[in-house]
Amino acid sequence: MINYPFKSVIPFGFFILFTTSLWSQLTVNGTSLFVDSATHLKVDGHIFIDKNASLTAKGILAVSGNVESISINDQIDNLQIFGDLPGKINFLKGNINHLFLLKSLSVPTYLQGVSLAVSNLHFVNNYNLLTLNDTDLDIVNLSDFSDVNYIVTNGKGLVGRNLSLNPVIFPVGSTFSGYHPIFITAVTNIGNEYAKVGFIEAGNYLAKNSGDYPVWQIENNGPIQFSMRWGTENNLHSGVLDLKQLRLKGWNGADWISVGFDTLLGNINAGYLKTRVLLPNEFKFYKLESILRVDLSKVLKLNNVELLPSFPNPFSGGTSVNFKLHKESLVTVQLFSPNGQLIKEFNNKYLDGYHFEILPEDLFPVSGFYSLRFIVGEEVVQTKLLKINY
Q: Distance (Å, rounded) from C-alpha 182 to C-alpha 129?
């Protein structure tokens, strides 16, 4: 049975076969509804398909309200979501070939249910957000995403995509802090490389020690690299003055530890950073921090140099050092072992501004306190690093 409260009653056969019409609501009970490829079916209201029914739409199905189905046989080629009020899509099982978002300015569309597969997702109007809530969304192709058209993943739902050796975009963000996309590159080319991504606002993250920073959740089935890129249209990290101030940490299930960057390039107006190769299950959550958000009482200051705390410290692998020069100067950095022997001397060149240096694990063969000395012109500042072998 098909229940259809009309604004005006039109015979069903004429409606489907010959004209584009406006329904106020469509409920399909215990039967199959077929929309052929020549038909544009417009519903200014909700659609509901019960478990004993099914919907097959080869033409265009345009809906202003909710699209809900507890059927297991739904197939929609072209679903258009329009209107001035928020709407939701809730499928028990089914596939959408093309999903077009045409809501009015800043009117969101919500996904509900366990998962939804969409072959092609189109952001047609500006300031349209697709909010996942707890629903996982599998996408093949995306178009017209931007800093005002993206996928909100502040619940448990993640965006899943197949990977390639070229960067694959995950245009995620939150309604509060905006667009925070990630590009993921597969390191292998077996053919089943896949990743799921979500961006989680600070305060919505359930694991320990999240702090004030938002985090990205990434689940990958093979080795990957991910990068963050931005320009004037993105403004991903507008509070950061220089990319060298950034550090990336991953949650390993017990602690946040330094992940490190393979490439760090650009400035706040245009640039990118790329991680080292990351393996499945190595980390699940990542957060990007600025080295400037530190306890100022722990910053060692002289006239021309500010030595920020090393991170991590204490450490079991490698660590990093961060320092700032107020004017260009000749800089020499020396690392001494726990027994006072010089292990390495590096830099010894003219520098200015902020600097970030990775100190790899092989510089610290034994546990204990290491001394790190900075010689900046005529100024000398020294700090301690603690290596712990677990």
A: 17
